[in-house]
Design a protein that fits this description.
It contains 13 helices and 4 strands. By secondary structure, it is an alpha+beta fold.
Length: 364
C-alpha cells in the first residue's frame, strides 16, 4: 500500500514554523502576553467560598444578605441621628449647660432613641424565629437532610458548617449594631437620667448582651427545629421561647449587680426625715424608713394619719430616725453585662453541644 503525503505550501510551513518558534520562545522566556494576563487575573482573583461553606451560604443566602443589608441601613440611620444630636448639643452649649433645661428641644432626639431601641430589642426574637427555627427544620421537612446524609460529607461537618456560618452572621450583625448604638448614646449617657441604663432598651442593646441574647435565641430555635422537624411549628414555638427568654432575662439581670445603700443622717424620732441623695444616673431600687434599731419600714408607714401631728406621733412611736435608698450605680453596667452575657454564652454552648451529641442523630 502506498502512502501519499500532500506537500506543504510555503504559507503552511511558515505558519507551523511561527507556531513552533512562538511556543519555544514562550517556553524559554516565560509566558507570552496573553498567558501572562491570564495568570495575573487568576492570581488576583478574590477567594471564593467552596465546598460545604459554599453550599450552606448559597442555601441561606437570601436570609444572610437580608440581615446584612438591614444592618447596613440601621447603622447608617443611627450614624445620621448621632450627627444630628451632636449638632444640637454643640449649638446648645453642652456639657456646660444642663440638658434638663432643654427638655422640649431635646424631645425629638429622645424619640429617635425610642425608635431605635424598639427595633434593637426585637433583634434576638426576629433572628430566632426567621433564621434559627428554619435552619435545620426546613432541611428535615423537605428531605434535603437525607440527600446530604447520603453524600461523603459527615453530618458533624454539615452541622458544624451550618452553625458556624449562621453564628458568624449573627455575631457580626449584633456586634456592629450594638457598637454603633453605644457610640450614639455615650455622649449623654451620664448626663441625661431619663434614659435609664438598667432598662431593657439600653442594657440589652449595648455591650455583649445583644450578641449573647441573639446567639441563644438562634441556636435555641435551631434545637426546636430539630425536635419538631416542621418549619412553621418550629417558628411558632421559637417565638414563644424567645419571648419567654426576654422576660426571664429582664427579671434576672438586675440581680447581677451589687446593691448600694445610701442612708440619711439619723434624727430624733418624730422629726422631719431627710432622704439621702443618690447619683442622678443611678438606677433606683427601693426606699425605706429606718428605725433606731436598724429595722426598715415601708414608705406607707403612718401614711393613713389625717394630720401632721398624728403623723409625727406615729413616726415617733415607730422609732423612725432616718431613711435609706437602694440603687445600682451606672459604673456597674459593664460588669453586669459581661457577667450576664457569660451565663447566656454558657447556655448557648450547652445547646450546641446537645445538638452535636443528640441532634445529629435526627438529621436524616
Amino acid at each position: 500500500m502506498s502512502t501519499f503525503t500532500r506537500p506543504s505550501t510555503d504559507g503552511e510551513n511558515r505558519t507551523t514554523n511561527e507556531t513552533m518558534n512562538g511556543t519555544m520562545t514562550a517556553t524559554k522566556n516565560g509566558p507570552r502576553h496573553g498567558a501572562r494576563n491570564a495568570t495575573t487575573t487568576q492570581a488576583t482573583r478574590r477567594p471564593r467560598l467552596s465546598g460545604m461553606t459554599w453550599l450552606v451560604w448559597r442555601q441561606h443566602r437570601a436570609a444572610f444578605w437580608t440581615i446584612l443589608a438591614a444592618t447596613v441601613l440601621c447603622v447608617a440611620w443611627m450614624a445620621y441621628q448621632r450627627g444630628q444630636m451632636m449638632d444640637f448639643l454643640n449649638a446648645y452649649g453642652f456639657p456646660a449647660k444642663n440638658l434638663d433645661d432643654a427638655d422640649k428641644e431635646f424631645k425629638p432626639y429622645i424619640g429617635a432613641f425610642t425608635s431605635a431601641t424598639t427595633g434593637l430589642t426585637a433583634i434576638p426574637v426576629i433572628l430566632g424565629v426567621l433564621l434559627g427555627a428554619p435552619l435545620l427544620a426546613g432541611d428535615l421537612e423537605n428531605g434535603t437532610a437525607k440527600l446530604i446524609a447520603a453524600q461523603s460529607v459527615s453530618r458533624n461537618r454539615w452541622l458544624a458548617t451550618k452553625l458556624a456560618l449562621t453564628g458568624l452572621v449573627v455575631t457580626v450583625t449584633t456586634v456592629t449594631v450594638s457598637a454603633v448604638f453605644a457610640w450614639w448614646w455615650n455622649p449623654i449617657k451620664l448626663h441625661y437620667p431619663d434614659l435609664d441604663w438598667a432598662s431593657r432598651e439600653f442594657f440589652n442593646t449595648t455591650g455583649p448582651v445583644p450578641v449573647a441574647l441573639s446567639l441563644l435565641s438562634v441556636f435555641g430555635g435551631v434545637l426546636i427545629g430539630v425536635i419538631l422537624r416542621r418549619t412553621l411549628a418550629a417558628m411558632v414555638v421559637t417565638l414563644g421561647f424567645t419571648v419567654a427568654l426576654q422576660a426571664v432575662w429582664g427579671y434576672f439581670k438586675l440581680s447581677l449587680g451589687d446593691i448600694v445603700t445610701a442612708t440619711s443622717k439619723p434624727v430624733s424620732p418624730g422629726t422631719t426625715i431627710t432622704f439621702p441623695s443618690v447619683p442622678r444616673t443611678a438606677h433606683w431600687l427601693d426606699t425605706s424608713y429606718v428605725s433606731g434599731s436598724g429595722k426598715r419600714f415601708d414608705l406607707t408607714t403612718c401614711a393613713e394619719t389625717s394630720t401632721e401631728e398624728a403623723t409625727r406621733l406615729c413616726m415617733k412611736k415607730a422609732d423612725i430616725v432616718g431613711a435609706s435608698m437602694d440603687y445600682l450605680p451606672v459604673s456597674q453596667m459593664s460588669g453586669m453585662q459581661w457577667l450576664g452575657a457569660s451565663i447566656l454564652f454558657a447556655l448557648t454552648v450547652g445547646i450546641v453541644a446537645f445538638l452535636f451529641i443528640w441532634g445529629r442523630k435526627r438529621l436524616v
